[in-house]
Amino acid sequence: MNALPPGIDLVRAPNPGPLTGPGTNSWVFGSGEVVVIDPGPLDKGHLDRLAEVAGGRGRVAAVLCTHHHVDHQEGAEQFALMVDAPLGVFHRRADRAGVLPLEHRDEVLAGETSLTVLHTPGHSRDHLCFLAAEERVLFTGDHVLSGTTSVIWPPDGEMAEYLRSLEAIQDLPVDWLLPGHGEPIPEPAAAVRRLLAHRREREAQVLRALATGPRTPEELVRDLYRDYPQDVREAAAQTVLAHCLKLEAEGQLVRATAADGAVAFGPAVP
Asked: How many alpha carbons fall within 13 Å on the CB side of residue 73?
């Protein structure tokens, strides 16, 4: 596998944690005119460093956000002001003057190259990936991560949409996935296939665990994620809930009420 193509820099934010891994990845793309993707948290040192790296490549033509979550977008408005560039977000979140509304298949120019906007809902409704076709890379935000899987947190996160969005990118002609957290991912098609297989196996585990009767997502997590650290259990429960809601919509599960009044799910009656 070749190295990353020239014209791409990673500036990692100092916000490590259970859900952010080593920190949020802010990407600088292009030369002469550059695009900055996901400025990350509102951290002055990080934004200053990002502006320095971007300025070393050229004028910032646009600042883009893959989605609205705070670890990706909190510093975006401030950064856009710092570099005097438009801020691009999913079109339904472009709710004020001066914000660039991005829609599926839009083209964003960066000097002599460009990025194609791909709407990839699932992790969030407004999630976008950015395809650099000439460079054969895809900036994936939280749609595909390195070393972990995306949290699907209803109602903004939706499992069926997430799986469809994964399928939509698995055959793109790219050599690298550049995620919002973690390291660049080689062999993109294989990586996406592994993610799809993992989610389908998790769905099968949910169905097997519920075959004997209703349980809450939190109860399922204690079995399905027993080897996971405690500080990711809440996020895991939300992803399990997303699986249950998908299976309910498909008629494979029905909603029930646990003894403490919590929402539970059980097998549908044949």
From this structure: 17
